[in-house]
């Protein structure tokens, strides 16, 4: 075959190796855009810490995500995200969400030490604002995160519960009233904003640098067991929660989703695996003492938290499973990680003790001291009323 004309060779070389002054053609610009990630633009609220920070980093590293927008009151560590610094209750958030396809709302305050009315005001108003702003900005999907606690811990719960089971929780446990209100807002939003899809992800007992009444249960020197109760423990590793949230972001699954390890652990298995012995109390004594201790401010956990250590609230997670998702961790593995995290901490009735206090009081002694303090206060109040 004969060699091509020199002018033809030069033209080919120029197209293959453009000069420094070369300006890309429209066709080349289209090719560059095609090579870029074609997935959704995802905004994450509460992106600077906790689950939000972990999800932001995960999405930013994904080839299936075009861009991540981090929204928080401070800048997070993920350099690949586009950051907007503001309170999620600020209506200006609507401008920051323009161009986003999906919003994952993780800016919730469930801290045991936060003033309850302030916590509720933040959680409910924040969720309302994010849903309204997302609709106004043209976002087509919002992913909310609550907890399987919304199903309620009740003696007649099936094992496991269906994801479609009635939400029978009450507002008596820490933050559960807020989560129930978030669930109500999630169901109402598509009616108020046609075209807005709302997905709710409900994790089981979340483990992975988290601090809740249920993780503090395993910081106690003895595991409080209410006589006649039937606890069942199901955990959710934070990595598994983030992978489930990613499934929702990528529209691989939608609706109301429960996420956690497969199956559950009976109380006896938990005690054997943890090596922590139980302290068994009659129901009236345990519930009455918990209520008094919280009422007089000795513990951050209301009596309603105790129900979640008494009765089952295990879920099947069938929707995620049907979509092909599987947890990467077992209940046994997550419990082992939790025990390692809380090693060296000392908690009685939800209240953290300093090492000196715990050493001086001892295991049962600390509990008795708290119960005794509640009794002393109660007697003092009765004496004042008689006077």
Provide an overview of this structure.
The chain is of the alpha/beta class and 387 residues long. Helix content is 41%, strand content 15%. The chain has 14 helices and 15 strands. The strands form five sheets. The chain has a seven-stranded parallel beta sheet, with helices on both faces. α3 (50-60) packs across α8 and α13 packs across α14. The protein is globular, with a radius of gyration of 26 Å.
- Percent helix among the residues? 40-55%
Strand order of the largest sheet: 3-2-1-4-5-6-11
User: How do the SSEs run, as a string of H and E?
Assistant: HHEHEEHEHEHEEHEEEHEEHEHHHEEHH
How many beta-strand elements? Answer: 15
Quick summary:
With 387 residues, the protein is of the alpha/beta class. It is 41% helix and 15% strand. Residues 1-24, 28-34, 355-370 and 372-377 have low confidence and may be disordered.
Which tags fit this structure?
387 residues; alpha/beta; seven-stranded parallel sheet; two-stranded parallel sheet; 15 strands; 15% strand
Produce the secondary structure layout.
Layout: H1 6-16, H2 26-35, E1 41-45, H3 50-60, E2 67-72, E3 82-85, H4 93-96, E4 102-105, H5 116-136, E5 141-145, H6 176-192, E6 197-203, E7 205-207, H7 213-216, E8 223-226, E9 232-233, E10 235-237, H8 238-249, E11 256-259, E12 265-266, H9 267-274, E13 278-281, H10 283-295, H11 318-322, H12 331-342, E14 346-348, E15 351-353, H13 355-361, H14 363-386
Helix pairs in contact: 3-8, 5-6, 13-14
């Amino acid at each position: 075959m004969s060699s091509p004309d020199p002018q033809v060779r030069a033209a080919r070389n120029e197209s293959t190796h453009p000069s420094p002054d070369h300006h890309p053609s429209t066709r080349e610009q289209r090719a560059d855009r095609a090579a870029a990630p074609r997935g959704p633009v995802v905004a994450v609220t509460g992106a600077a810490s906790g689950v939000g920070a972990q999800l932001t980093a995960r999405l930013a590293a994904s080839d299936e995500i075009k861009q991540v927008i981090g929204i928080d009151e401070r800048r997070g560590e993920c350099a690949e995200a586009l950051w907007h610094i503001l309170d999620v209750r600020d209506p200006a958030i609507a401008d920051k969400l323009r161009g986003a396809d999906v919003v994952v709302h993780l800016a919730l305050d469930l801290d045991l030490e936060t003033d309850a009315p302030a916590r509720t005001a933040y959680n409910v108003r924040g969720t309302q604002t994010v849903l309204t702003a997302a609709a106004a900005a043209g976002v087509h999907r919002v992913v909310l995160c609550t907890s399987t606690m919304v199903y309620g811990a009740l003696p007649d719960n099936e094992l496991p519960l269906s994801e479609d089971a009635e939400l029978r929780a009450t507002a008596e446990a820490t933050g559960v009233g807020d989560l129930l209100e978030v669930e109500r807002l999630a169901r109402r939003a598509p009616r108020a904003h046609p075209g807005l899809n709302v997905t709710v992800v409900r994790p089981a007992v979340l483990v992975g640098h988290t601090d809740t009444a249920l993780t503090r249960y395993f910081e106690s020197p003895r595991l409080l067991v209410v006589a006649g109760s039937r606890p069942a423990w199901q955990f959710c590793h934070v990595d598994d929660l983030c992978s489930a949230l990613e499934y929702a972001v990528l529209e691989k699954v939608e609706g109301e989703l429960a996420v956690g390890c497969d199956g559950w652990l009976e109380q006896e298995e938990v005690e054997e695996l943890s090596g922590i012995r139980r302290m068994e109390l009659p129901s009236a004594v345990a519930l009455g003492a918990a209520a008094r201790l919280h009422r007089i401010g000795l513990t951050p956990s209301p009596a309603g938290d105790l129900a979640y250590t008494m009765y089952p609230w295990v879920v099947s997670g069938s929707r995620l499973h049907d979509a092909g998702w599987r947890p990467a961790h077992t209940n046994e593995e997550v419990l082992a990680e939790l025990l390692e995290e809380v090693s060296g901490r000392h908690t009685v009735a939800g209240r953290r003790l300093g090492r000196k206090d715990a050493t001086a009081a001892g295991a049962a002694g600390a509990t008795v001291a708290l119960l005794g303090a509640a009794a002393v206060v109660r007697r003092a109040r009765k004496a004042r009323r008689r006077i």
